[in-house]
Structures
1.
Amino acid sequence: HVEAKRVEEVILPAWTEEFIEKITGTKQSFDEMKETLRKNLLLEGEYEEKQRRENEFLEYLLEKTDVELPEALIEEEIDALIEEFKGELEQMRVTLETYLEQNKKELKDLRVGRRKEAEKRLKLRFGLNKLFEQEDIAATPEELKQEIKKMVDYYPEKERAKIKNECREGSWLYRRLENKLKMAKMFERFL
């Protein structure tokens, strides 16, 4: 049983240029705002479709990749996954120990829980590397240099030297950027 104490009329603001500027940060007419929204929704839909196709392609590649993974390699990948997880926790100002304690888990439970993901990542990495090799897909030094510059420029001035150093050739970040470029070329070619 609900009892209404008072009923008020909702008065919506007029869609003036001032109101639109207040909510969008851009001075534009109602029709311009509708057109911008329409374009943004189309772009969002295109992006989601692109992501869907890319994920489907990677799942297909995963199915077609047949590789025996040595136990030591799987353990190493589990270590990497746990390090990534630690980093995510640290961003939330939580230690791994605190997380384990709060969730009544032990490190071995976390390791067991990450095993399938580690195997999947390794299998996909082997499949991708084989495909890159077969299809002669590579990132040029110039492309890598541009990608590193984009990444470094994203950071505040005082952190740029540190980030640039972390992107040195052979580092995990350098390899990650190289793989990102190769993946983009692969998707461009096959999708």
2.
Amino acid sequence: FTYRVTWYDEEVSGTAQTQSRAGSTRGVRWERSVVDRGLQMGPPPTGRLLSIVGGATASIADHPHTVAILAARTADGFSAQYCGGTLVTPRWVVTAAHRVDQRAAAEVDVVAGISDLDAIGASDRRVVETIHVHPDYDGGLVLNDIALLYLAVAVDAAAAEPIPWQAEATAPVSRTPVSLSGWGSTDVLGE
């Protein structure tokens, strides 16, 4: 699925405020942090922030850097898939820290170049050698929610390609429109 978002630049908009304040509850600190980071505001979460819902069906050919993150011990690809990620080099995948922070590398597989989860076979799976969660990740406040997966074997160029802008010398600047891709629902009912 493809979504349009605006990239946040801390140097332009200021830093996130997450420190404790007298009389502040965790929910109030979360709300200030979200507002200060320029994100849309909703009610404070009881667990995770709501997932992105919407978009349209997209071809893996249009997003060859999109990978599926799977539970390694579950054979069926559809049942095993629990998150997505982005191939940033042939051996590195970026994903959400909250999806891998409580897992060992042996519990996670990556599949690249396949959009039909039912078609995933054992030979399509890439073993994750190590998981690197951001050192300042805070699951309660959902801050620094990013992790890198290092694959035991590089993804073959015939299967998938790293994200295109990674090869360029400059990164996107503030307010640059970007696309997101992954697996999910196109409506809130899970259809």
